[in-house]
Amino acid sequence: MSTITVLGAGMHGLTTAMLLARDGHRVTVLERDPATPPPAGRAWDHWERSGVGQFRQPHFMLPRWREELEDALPEVLDDLVAAGGMRLNPILAAPQERRGPARPGDERFTTVTARRPVLEAVLAGVAARTPGVSIRRGVAADGFLAGTPTSPGVPHVAGIRTSDGERIAADLVVDCRGRRARMQDWLCAIGARPPVEEREDAGFVYYARHFRSADGGMPPAMGPLLQHYAPFSTITLPADHGTWSVGIITSSADHPMRALRDPAVWQAALARCPLIAHWTVGPGIEPITGVDVMAGLEDRHRRLVIGGEPVVTGLVTVGDSWACTNPSLGRGASIGAMHARLLQQVLREVDLGDADKVVRRFDDATAAVVEPVFRATLAFDRHRIAELAGERTGRPYESDDPAWALAKAVAAAAATDPDGLRLYGRLALLLDPPQSVFADQSVVGRLLSRPAPRYPFPGPTRADVLDAIAA
Ligand SMILES: Cc1cc2nc3c(=O)[nH]c(=O)nc-3n(C[C@H](O)[C@H](O)[C@H](O)COP(=O)(O)OP(=O)(O)OC[C@H]3O[C@@H](n4cnc5c(N)ncnc54)[C@H](O)[C@@H]3O)c2cc1C
């Protein structure tokens, strides 16, 4: 039986631990935050979680996440539903005139979702009762233990040193320390080359509030969960117990928009969005937070294999510690679940004793399966931030990147055509890879030959929002 140490008991640390323990590994999860997770029903009000900056930010689990969990950890979904998680089909929730009648296959678009503390409390509850998983909270990893190299010149991680000086030996360390994880110093201290790291400020800022309805109901969706307008994008994300979140996402370079941190200004701006305003005000609707602001989000990608050669063995990174982006497409949890399952698969095929092969095989699998999703998300974000800059400077953004034109065409088709809506759903909800979605040229050709408006839904110009702010 091998011993695996997972760093971080966030969404992906817990998922990874459960998957690996089920395959017979003995897994210890080290979590820096000391608080014991409360039952899911008390998590929103009673769980302090400074280690996860986005803990009270809007979250929505895509159908891809539901599919991954249904396959690999179905009891998480059962517990989530029992804890009040919302079962929702974003395609069938669209207005009838946009989605048409329900079709065979539409059930794939179903998901189960909740507010982030509720989601994580459910994962923590299932992990805590999974044989082979031990979770130690209030224990911070502080560096790697160097072991005997298995390949000449490549340092080997043989465990973890904690901030209390404890030494914990492991056959494999899985770094799930999230988007703020720094690794260079720890690698340098055991004589490893630095990993390949790409990092940039994504340039987005989130202004988000959570709401609750008096009767447990949910406002009707009049457009998709994520909508793009000239001055900002909006998200309207249903969650557990008749709660939901509404977010405004814009460029952090747009200084007048910083007034959106004031709830009255935020409300006034959304009053100019005819498909969104009813999520924020109406009979029985009550805000349960002020406007929570999150900025300084990095796009980051880290690779521990350079030019085909590992910089280290005995260590892999999963989830946000491997790569993270601006989260407006809501893909983090799905990518992390896919990634954790890839590691499970690699460890089924490669003996942990072959430390070099484990790192190489996981790197290859990551590059083939999850990196394309990361790259596509990053490319979308870069176009969108440039589009927001174009609105600010009065020079409308144009790009000759066919992928951006395609993204615009798909979004426009989704707004007007039931086939387009499903095509968009398969792509945006990560259910199928683009090559399979675009394989049926008869439908795709018809949908994508139409002219695509820059913004498919009625909404404010930037000047409208600046007026609302001034008023
Ligand atoms: C504003 C925002 C909104 C988002 N919305 C969505 C969404 O709608 N849908 C979606 O799928 N994803 C969303 N995401 C992404 C999602 O939150 C992440 O993908 C997910 O939280 C990553 O999980 P993780 O386990 O990799 O890291 P985290 O959840 O960040 O957990 C990392 C853990 O590591 C611990 N840790 C750190 N350092 C140490 C150490 N030295 N020793 C021990 N423990 C340590 C931390 O305390 C923390 O518990 C959003 C992200 C942001 C920023």
From TrEMBL:
Coiled coil: none
Database matches in Gene3D superfamilies: FAD/NAD(P)-binding domain
Any matching Pfam family: DAO
UniProt keyword terms in alphabetical order: Monooxygenase, Oxidoreductase
SUPFAM superfamilies: FAD/NAD(P)-binding domain (SSF51905)
Molecular-function annotations in GO: monooxygenase activity
Span of domain FAD dependent oxidoreductase: 4-173
PANTHER family: MONOOXYGENASE, PUTATIVE (AFU_ORTHOLOGUE AFUA_2G01950)-RELATED
Name this polypeptide is given: 2-polyprenyl-6-methoxyphenol hydroxylase-like FAD-dependent oxidoreductase
Organism: Petropleomorpha daqingensis
Taxonomic placement: Bacteria, Bacillati, Actinomycetota, Actinomycetes, Geodermatophilales
